[in-house]
Amino acid sequence: PPPPPPALPECSVAPEDGERLDRWRTFSLDELLESLKRLLISETILQLVVDNHGIQLLASILAHTFPEPVLAEALASVWQMCFVSSACQAVSEDSALMARLRQLAGSDEERVRINANGALFELRQHWLRLRWRRASQAAVRQLEDTGSVEDDQEEDFWLEAAEQAAGDMDEVPPPPEEGTMGVKRQKSSPVFTCSQNPAAAVDEEMCKRRQGFKVMVSYCWAEQGLVVRVKQALVAHGFSVWMDVDDLNQGSLLENMAAAVEAADVLVLASSEAYKNSQACRTEASYAYSLRKLILPLIVEEGYRPTGWLGALLGGILYYDVSSPDKFDSELARLVAAICSLIGDPEPPPPPIPPATAQPIQQPAPPPSTVTQSTLDAVREWLARAAGVPPGAGPPELVSLPMMEQLQVWRTEAPAHFHQTVLEAVADPTKLTHLLSAAQFLAVISN
After folding, report:
1. Strand partners, 296
2. What are the tens digits of pLDDT across the range 357-402?
3. What is the pTM of this model?
4. Spatial distance between the Cα atoms of 1 and 327, rounded to a whole number of angstroms
5. How far apart are CA 442 and CA 161, in angstroms?
6. Which of 88, 249, 330, 396 could form a disulfide with 126 if both were Cys (CB 3.0 to 4.6 A apart)?
7. Stronger pLDDT, 315 or 189, i.e. the higher one
8. Residue closest to 278 by CA, chosen among 259, 301, 295
C-alpha cells in the first residue's frame, strides 16, 4: 500500500464572504468528499479506500477547522465506511478520530451533528456484534469441554460464557457511549399515530388490538409523498404508525429512530435506489434487522428490485409494489391483509376490480422504413462484389430490410464504432460476416 497521506494545511477562507478558495481542478474539497461518499456505496471501492489509508486521510481533514460543508461530507464518508467491519475496527483504534467524532456529535451544525452521531451509532453496533460473537465462541468452546448443558444449568452456563467473552474483549477498544459527547440520555418515547375511531375496525376488541400493534415506516425522503399515503391508509385501518414527520421535535434523529425501531412490532420498509444509497436508511434497516424485527418491504420506485446490501437484507421476502397508481390500492390491500394476519384479525375485503374496457387496445402503427428498395439492392450488389460473387449470383437474403434499418440506427447512435467496423470490413472482406451478424442480431432484438 502507499505511504500514509501527509497532513493537510489549514483551509484558506476569504474573510469577506467565507467563500472556499482551495480547489483542485475547479472542484472544492466538499465536492470531492461528496463524490467519495457516493463511490463508497460500493463495498469493493470502500475496501480499496480503507486499504489505501482513506480513514487516515478523513481523520486528518476532520482534525482541521474546515467549514461546515467539508466537515459534514467528511463525516458522511466516515459513516459510510462504518458499515464495513474492517473499517469500524480501524476507526475504533484511532483514539484522536474517536475523540473528534464525539466532539462533533454535539455540533450546532445539523448535518455535522447527524453524520457524526450516525458514525458513532454504527461503531457501537459493531462493538456489540463483536461482543456477542466472542460470547458465542466462548459458549461453543465450553460446550466442547462439558459435552452438554442441563436445562436447569443453562442460564448459569451462558452467564459464565459471557464473562469469559468479556475477558476476551479487553484488547478491543470500548464502544462509543450513547448520546451526544458521551452523555447518556434518557430514551425518548416514540410518537405513534393512530385513529381513535378507525372505520376498518368492526368492534371494540379489534380496535384495541390494532391500536396496540405498532408499525414503523422506514423510507427515504425522496419518496415521502407516496409513503405518507401508505401511512395514512394504515392509520385509517386502525394501526398505530410511526413516521419521522410526526416525531421531529423530540430528541435527535438517530435517538428517535432507534426508539421507534425498538418499540415497533413490524417495520414497513419503502425500498428504492434512493433508500439503498442513504446512510440513515441503511442504519435504520440494519438496526431493525439486528433486533430481528419483522420487515414488510414496499417497492416505491417503479421497476426497482433491491440489490446490494438492501437485497441481501431483504432476501426473498415478498414485496408490495405500490409504485404505480394502477397497483397502489390492490397492493396496499395486500399489505393491510398481511398485517391483519399477524394479529389474528380477519382480512379486509379486497378492493373492487375495475370493469374491462369495451374498446380494444390499439397497437401503434410501425414507423415507416428509412431504407428504400433501391438502397437495399445497391448494398446487396456492393456486398456481392466485396465477397467476389458475380452480380446476381449471391443469395438475395444476404442482407435484409430490417438489417439495413438496424445498421442505419447503429450509424446514428454510435457513429464512431459503426464507421470503424465498416472500415475493418472493407479492408478485410472476411469481416463482412461479423458486420452482417451484428446487424442481424440488432434486427432480431429490436423486434
Report:
1. 268
2. 334 434 445 555 566 777 767 776 766 666 565 555 554 455 666 6
3. 0.61
4. 52
5. 64
6. 88
7. 315
8. 301
